[in-house]
Amino acid sequence: MSTPTLEKPPAVPEEIQSFTVTLSVRRFVPETDEEPHWENYDVQMYATDRILDALHKIKWEQDGSLSFRRSCAHGICGSDAMRINGRNRLACKTLIKDLDITKPVTVEAIKGLPLEKDLIVDMEPFYASYREVQPFLVANSKPKDGKERIQTVAERERFDDTTKCILCAACTSSCPIFWTDGQYFGPAAIVNAHRFIFDSRDENAAVRLDILNDKEGVWRCRTTFNCTEACPRGIQVTQAIAEVKQAIMRGKP
Amino acid sequence: MTSALAAPRSPYARAPRKNGVNWEKWGWLYMRVSGIVLVVLIFGHLFVNLMVGEGVSALNFAFVSGKLANPFWQWWDVAMLWLALIHGGNGMRTLVNDYATTRVARGILKSAILAAVVILIVLGTLVVFTFDACPAGQPADLLPTFCQAL
């Protein structure tokens, strides 16, 4: 028995075209810089690469001091929300082929939250307003058969859209009200309140509605739809806020 | 054993609302309701003034005085005046809340808006209900010609 061998050498793979993309990154080092400044980097990229790959190339091959957050790199962890060409997106979901590369692609930190370094902002104010809406199931009664809280498909469908939130802050940091008034809860907190307010198993809807029925709550929303456009998960954020407004008017979900 | 730690997930404390009435909520509802009513009032107003009968060419002092002598149009115009001014004033107030950053600037701008709204409402209401095209005891050459028919 002879070892099977390849009869033909494999065809030479076709050269995949690559492009030189200029990234204009808003850099800020708190120890040395007074003000943030823009710096340009040229990177060789394929059309199917993402902005996150470009940032990696810069950090690994050109300038190791560039700082940004990323974790899973697949649009689930929500760490790498940034302002790319003036729009809030996840760097790991923004493909080179979807951008105009004849001009430099601008990359900067999300707005409205304190800038810490380069593309990293202090997320604490964002998480603080998230915590305030009690984003956890509150159910003090015993379930009917003593085992589990049964929910119909329709009841689950009611809040399905808002369960998709990954807390990347793309919506909240695209909101013009949040830019000028950091006291506003912001779209993300309201989306996560919506997720529990409309959950049939939850018993604390009234408390959450009362928290959001506030000067800095849902009434601050001006329905500019920036949040819906920014959401990388496609959540209808403005609609969720409007549903919470209606629930407050009704006094129940 | 007692623990110094707070119970997990104890509710996050935010200062409760001080006054009982939630003005933001009622302001929001007012904008929706007055907006719908204003659509009817304003387009009705435009239709009657500009399109019915002779249309825009019928508009003159006599036409307006005739309308303001009719209680139906008096109340129509007063409703339009109040709803529109409060609607506009509340809209301006929310803009100031959104974009004026200091307490002092917010206070000045909001008082200016309030003053404008109150003055215009008082003056407008006064005019609508006290307007008299032919005041008694005035020389005839100062009065419009249709007053001689009275």
Question: How would you explain this protein's 3D organization?
Answer:
Chain A is an alpha+beta fold. Chain A has two domains: 104 residues, Beta-grasp domain (Ubiquitin-like (UB roll), Roll); 116 residues, Fumarate Reductase Iron-sulfur Protein, Chain B, domain 2 (Orthogonal Bundle). Chain A has eight helices and seven strands, in the order E-E-H-E-E-E-E-E-H-H-H-H-H-H-H. Chain A is globular, with a radius of gyration of 23 Å. Chain B has 150 residues and is mostly helical. Chain B has four helices and no strands. In chain B, helix 1 packs across helix 3. The longest helix of chain B has 29 residues. Chain B is elongated and about 60 Å long. The relative contact order of chain B is 0.09. At the A-B interface, helix 2, helix 4 and helix 8 of A face helix 1 and helix 3 of B.
Note the beta-strand portion of chain A: 5-15%
What is the 3D shape of chain A? globular
Number of domains of chain A: 2
Strand content of chain B: under 5%
State the share of residues found in helices of chain B, binned by percent. Answer: 55-70%
Level-1 CATH class name of the largest domain in chain A = Mainly Alpha
Extended strand count of chain B: 0
Number of helices of chain A: 8
Domain tally of chain B: 1
Look at the structure and name the CATH superfamily of chain B: Fumarate reductase/succinate dehydrogenase, transmembrane subunit
